[in-house]
EAL domain-containing protein (Aquabacterium soli), 725 residues
Amino acid sequence: MAQRRASWNLDMVGEVIFMPSSYEAWTVVASVLLAMFASFVALDLAKRVRTADRAIARAWLIGGSVTMGIGIWAMHFVGMMAFKLPISVGYDVLYTLVSALAAIGVSYMALWIASRHKLTCLRLTGGAVAMGAGICVMHYLGMHAMEMSPDVVWDWRLVAASAGIAVGASAVALLIFFWLRKLQGLPALVWQMAAAAIMGVAIAGMHYTGMAAASFPLGSVCTSSSELRGDTLGVMVGAASMLLLSMTLLTSIMDARTQSRTNKLAASLQVANQELKHIAFKDPLTGLANRLVFEDQLDSSVLRAQEGNRRLAILFIDLDGFKPINDSFGHAVGDEVLKQVGQRLSSVARPGDVVARVGGDEFLMLLENNPDRATAAAVSMSVREALSKAFEIDGRGMHLSCSIGIVVHPDHGPRARLIANADAAMYAAKRAGGSVHCFYEADMANDAEMQIALQRDLRHALDHGGKGLELYYQPKIHAISRQTTAVEALIRWHHPTRGTVSPVQFIPIAERFGLIGALGDWVINDAFRQMRQWQKEGLRMRVAVNLSMHQLRQNDLVERISKALREHRIEPDLVTFEVTESAAMEDTQTSLRMFDQLAALGVRLSIDDFGTGYSSLAYLRKLPARQLKIDRSFIKDLQPEGDSYAIVLAVVQLAHALGLNVVAEGVETAEQERILLQIGCDSLQGFRYAKPMPAKRLAIWAASEEGPDHGAPLGFRDSLIEPEV
C-alpha cells in the first residue's frame, strides 16, 4: 500500500491533523488500463457516429455515449475504490448515479462534436471547456458521494490543476478524433492505440490530481458507509464496464467491416451503373450510339423539324459481303472490320449528324440541318466511297460495299414508320444487286410488312407444334447401283393463306428474327419421328438433317439431340447431320469441339456446300466427318475440261484420300451424271432422280417407274441396313 500523511495550517487557528490515506497499487493500474480501454473505444465510436445513415448515426451517438460514459465513470469509481482510509467508507447512491450521468453527458458532447464535418475553433474551445466542466462534475460529485463529517478539506490549487487537466485532455481528445480521420489501415490502428494510451493517462491524471486535492481530518466519519461499498463492488463495476466496452468495441468493429463491405459494394455498384449507362447508350463494339439513343435523338429531331417546318433524313446502311468475311476469318476479324466501319462512318458524318449501330452489320445515320434528296444522296455516296476502300486487318486486304436505304421526313412517312421504311428501302437496294442507295417508295412498305407478317405467322406455327410445317425428303442415289442409300430432310411451309412458302424466303426471316433455333429443333424431332414410323413399317431409312450455324453455337445442342434420339428410339448411326463448310469455319475451335461431341453420340457428320468456303486441308483432317457434299454451283457448270470439272475432280480425290464419301447435289442432266460417274463420285442427288417429296410418297416413288429416263425403278438398296457406302 502506498501511504500519505497530510497537514494543513488553518489561519491562525492551529494545526489540523489529517487521517493517513493510501492507494492499492493494482487497483490503480486497473483504473488506468480501464481509462485507456475506454479511450480506445471512444476513438472507435467517433468513426461510427459519422455514418451517412442518420438513424444509424443517432443510434451510435446515444448508445456510444452511454457505453463511453460508463467506461469513464467506471474508471473513476475503480480509482475511488483504490483509495483507502483507516475508516469504513461508502458512497451515496444518488450522488454516484448523478456522477455517472455526468460522464454520459460528457461522452455525448464529445461524440456529437466528433460527428461534425469540421472542428472549428469555437467547437474546440467551447467543447473542451464544457467537457472539462462535465468531467469535473462527474469526479467531484463522485467524491461528494463520500459523505464525510466533518467535510473534506480541499487544496484549491490542486482542484484548479485537475480542472485544467480535464479541459486540456478534452481538447486533445477532440483534436485526436478529427486527426485520426486522415489515417487508414494499420497506421490508423497503431495511432489509435497510442492516442488511447495518452488519453487514458490524462483522464487518470485528472482523477488522481483531484483525489490529491482532498484531505480528511483525523476523527472524520463517513455517514454513507452503509451504502455502496466494498472491494467486491469495485471488481464487479470494473468487470461489468470492461465487458460492456468489449461488446461495444466488437459491435463497432463488426459494423465497420459491414460498412466497409457496403462501401465496396456501393463503389462496385457505381462502377456497374457507369458500365450499364455505357452499355445502355453506346454500342460496346464500335462505341457508336445504339438504337435506344438513336430513337431518342430521332424523336427530338422530328419535333424540331416539325416546329421549324424543316426536313431530316435517315440512311439505313447494311454491309454487303460482311458475312463471308465473318464466316471465313472468324468473329475477331469480323469485329475489327465493324470497328473500322464505325470509324469511317463517323468521319463521313457532318456536324450534328448521329451515327448508330443497330444490328450485326446494320448502321443508321440521322441527317439534320434540313437535308433534301440531293444532300441525302451525296452523303450516301460518301458513305459508299468510304466503305469501298480496302480494310487492312492482320496484313490482309478485305473489300466491302454497302446497300443504303434512304427516307426523308416528312415525305416518306410519319415518325413511327421512318426506320422501318428506311429498312425496306435498304432491302430494295440489296435486291438491286447491292452497292447502291435507294430512296423509299410507297410499295416498298409492302415487302417489309410481309416479312413482319411472315415472322409472326412462323412464330405462331412453331408455338403450335409446327402447324403448317412439313418435311420433304430428297433421295441420295448410289452412283453405281442407282439405289437409294439415304434421304435428306428439307423443310416446307404450307401457309394457311399464302400457300407454300419457299425456304429461301422464310429461313432468312427465321434467322433475322431469332426463330432459327426453334425451327431447327422442330426439324430434328419431326425427322426422328418419321424415321421411327418408317421403322415400324419395316424400313430402316438413313436420314440427313441440316444444322445451321446458329444451332452449332447452342451449348445444349448435343444434349437435345441425345434426348430426341432416346425419345424416338432412333439408332444414332442412321442419322447424318449436314453442316455447311462456312458454318464449320465460323469458329473452328468451337465447331471442332461440337463435332467431336456429336460424333461421340454415334451420329454421322457431313460437310455441306463444300468448295464455297475457305477450309484448309489441316482443319478438314481434324473433323470427324464421314462425307463431303459438293456444292451445286460446281455441278451446274460441269463440263469436261472446264474449271468446275477440275475442282470437282480435285475434291473427290481429296475426299477419297481422307476416307470420305462424296455426294454431288444438284444433278439434273444425264451428262452431269456421266461425268460424275467417270470422276468417281459415290452418291448423287438432284432433280434428275427425284424432287423433294413428302414421306408418304417416298416408298411409292421408289417402287414406281418415275426414275431418270423412265428406266428401271429406283429401289432401296439392301445396304441400307449396312453402313452407307
